[in-house]
Amino acid sequence: MKALVTGGAGFIGSHLVDRLVEMGYDVVVLDNFRRGNKLDKETLKKITLIEGDVRDYHTVMEAARDCDYIYHFAAVLGVDIVADNPVETMETEVVGMTNVAKAAVYYGVEKIIYASTSGVYGKSAIEQAVKEDFDVSPKSSYAIAKRYNEIYLASLYEEKNLQSISLRFFNVYGPKQDNRMVIPRFFEQALTGKPITIYGTGKQTRDFTWIGDVITATVELTKKATGCGIFNISNEDEITIEELAFKIKELTGSDSEIVYITPSKNRYDFEVERRFGSSQKLFETTGFKPNTPLDYGLKEVYKYILKHSPSGVKYAAKLAAEKSES
Hints:
Elements: E1 2-6, H1 11-22, E2 26-31, H2 41-44, E3 48-51, H3 57-64, E4 69-72, H4 79-84, H5 86-107, E5 111-117, H6 141-160, E6 163-169, E7 172-173, H7 182-192, E8 196-199, E9 205-206, E10 209-210, H8 211-224, E11 228-233, E12 239-240, H9 241-252, E13 258-261, H10 280-286, H11 294-308, H12 310-325
Parallel strand pairs: 1-2, 1-4, 2-3, 4-5, 5-6, 6-11, 7-10, 8-13
Antiparallel strand pairs: 9-12
Helix pairs in contact: 1-8, 3-5, 5-6, 7-9, 9-11, 11-12
């Protein structure tokens, strides 16, 4: 089988590429590398790498040639980056999806697998885990564009019979994630002795989902989901951001102070008090649902950071020196 992964050099995309290569896929990666390249050297030897932008029609057509599946994971990410670049955010989503869809129809691609977001649920007051049939109310340019693409894919299936899966990810975390996201940011602050900064009260909750579970869910849905579907990918658990900060402080043994700061106006559309999801539909379709405990995942992230990030390597050396002195 041959697959195109747009955004395949990014955090989630690179983990997906690793899994597809392990499964024997012929993989093409299309990425603009604006946020670096998270693919390791061994993986790079086994794939076709194309540098380009999903907004460029001809580049997408070249990348998608002869592919059975397109995993469309290219996106502008990070709350502050998205808030400061709403036009680029929406163009990347909308123009990128249009190009991917045209290529898929032209080449007879079997299925598009699209990285959507739990952000489409918006600020709705939620007293239970959200399900896919709940009303959505996206507020940010990012979430609105994601919801538009979900509807666009449904229209493509109705008119062109192009199968697709939209994956509503809930706060994915794991090795190789950069500090635009909260968990690596907290680790970075803890290891460098800087204040661990929490926006707002810290009482807001999130449902953090381990990257390995996300990739397994994606692969299983590729095999087993048919037609046009939307699926939550969530751990079905919630934790406050304040509790997360204390967990990371304790895990690292950091002396960093936990500080609460007022969110800037450009973060308003992203500030949600409570969000956690149900993966029941995923389980009914595939027999799998995410189940990796957050404590385990945080330890794995910490071990990775100690070996691979500059601040982590420095902190590991400090810990080793303290141990030898004692």
